[in-house]
Design goal:
Number of strands: 4
Radius of gyration: 24 Å
Number of domains: 3
Length: 435
């Protein structure tokens, strides 16, 4: 467990009793989670294990590969369950001690062979969550008045009407009337989309702290189904969880995005011949597409995390309407200008055709994992460390591990194919992808 070398303060008798009670109930919940997956003996590092295959051949190699695949799938399932258990502990007790969350992580790490890098990533998640939670609690203590707090968070100075402000471990949750909702959106959004979200959106303070908040339009909610509020809140809070994940797992990609895209555009505009120019253009567009796919991933996870059906639709990713989910609108618009003939065909191929195919295959992969018995929440956490492009390959490996019979390759191929049947008709309402 991480330590800065400073002894923690002694606990009172009552505090010790609370800790023991928490540990007891927590242990019961973890024990139930353990019942789902057999343990792995010792630390399991798949990359090292795969290296050992070079010394084997024939049936022995095939059997060893099967063992690696099944262990890797089991470890990924346990990693997902570990994340779910940590989030459940936070939901049960939003003020749970950071050390108790470390305890959950290390309790899973030993029987499921987590490697040191995996443990460090888990600790980084907990540290980032704890820092954000402390930041939210500190600001609430500093500004107890709801109206003043919302003005501080959003930067809106006009008169506003606040219904309520709640504190969650991931963000403030603000409920407002329609007029106030619109004011906050205009203050937050750098581009006023023609189809701005009617019901809810996530924002953050425009300072170095970047304190997160969720805004709910109570007037719109009153015209919607009764349990929609919980669905919209869980949707927006999933975005906040995903921000933590992306800052840890994809930080280098996010940090390098602006620099690399600028360099590629320079190379494109200064290329000496048409073939070289087109090559740099493709790389430039794919750089932007990969960045957009991080936003797709966040929105997709948010849709699938909704605790009640809100009518969220996967086809928002394909509308090309310049709306909030049309992440490549600015590049396509540029390509559509008459003087940009060279861009048009390449833009369509990459920013429309390739982009759409990647997303559709990712949705199929998610659905295929649900078909073999995972819940939506479990699939989100199983895929949490994978970019959208990698979901089909990761899903296929996990399904193979569940079905694999190393003596019957034909059976394996047939079964995997069955779980990857086309689901093209399902890119519509959430209800098309059964929970």
């Amino acid at each position: 467990m991480p330590t800065n070398g400073v002894e923690p303060p002694a606990l009172s008798v009552n505090e010790q009793s609370e800790v023991l009670q928490t540990e007891s109930t927590q242990a019961t919940r973890i024990k139930k989670a353990f019942e789902k997956f057999p343990f792995i003996e010792g630390t399991f590092d798949a990359s090292e294990e795969i290296g050992s295959l070079k010394k084997l051949s024939g049936t022995e190699r095939k059997q060893k590969l099967w063992q690696i695949k099944t262990k890797l799938a089991r470890q990924r399932e346990a990693w997902a369950q570990c994340r779910i258990t940590i989030e459940q502990e936070i939901e049960i007790d939003p003020q749970i001690r950071k050390d108790d969350l470390y305890s959950v992580l290390h309790t899973f790490a030993i029987p499921y062979g987590f490697t040191e890098p995996q443990i460090r990533i888990g600790e980084a998640f907990i540290d980032a969550f704890d820092a954000k939670r402390n930041q939210i609690n500190d600001l609430r203590d500093q500004v107890p008045n709801d109206t003043e707090l919302v003005k501080r968070l959003t930067g809106v100075t006009d008169p506003i009407q606040i219904v309520s402000v709640a504190v969650s471990p991931y963000a403030f949750v603000i409920r407002t009337d329609d007029a106030t909702y619109g004011k906050i959106w205009e203050q937050q959004s750098t581009i006023i989309y023609p189809n701005y979200p009617r019901f809810a959106f996530a924002g953050e303070t425009r300072d170095s702290e970047s304190t997160p908040f969720v805004v709910i339009n109570q007037d719109s909610m009153n015209t919607y189904q009764d349990d929609a509020f919980e669905g919209f809140v869980s949707h927006e809070l999933e975005h906040e969880k995903e921000k933590i994940v992306q800052r840890i797992l994809f930080k280098s990609d996010m940090d390098d995005y602006a620099r690399i895209s600028t360099e590629l555009f320079y190379l494109f505009t200064n290329a000496e011949d048409r073939l070289e120019q087109e090559r740099y253009l493709r790389e430039y567009l794919r750089c932007h597409m990969d960045h957009a796919l991080l936003a797709v991933r966040s929105e997709f996870f948010a849709i699938k995390s909704e605790k009640s059906l809100t009518g969220s639709s996967f086809n928002v990713f394909f509308l090309q309407d310049g709306g909030p989910y049309d992440y490549l609108f600015f590049l396509r618009e540029w390509a559509d200008k008459p003087e940009n003939h060279q861009w048009q065909a390449i833009c369509k191929k990459i920013l429309v055709d390739e982009y759409t195919t990647i997303i559709k295959k990712a949705i199929d992969a998610f659905w295929s994992l649900q078909k073999v018995g995972y819940s939506a929440q479990e699939v989100i956490r199983v895929l949490v460390d994978a970019p959208v492009r990698r979901w089909p390959a990761d899903a296929r490996r996990i399904i193979e591990a569940k079905l694999y019979d190393y003596d019957d390759d034909a059976f394996l191929k047939a079964e995997v194919a069955r779980f990857f049947e086309p689901t093209r008709q399902a890119f519509c309402r959430e209800s098309s992808y059964l929970q």
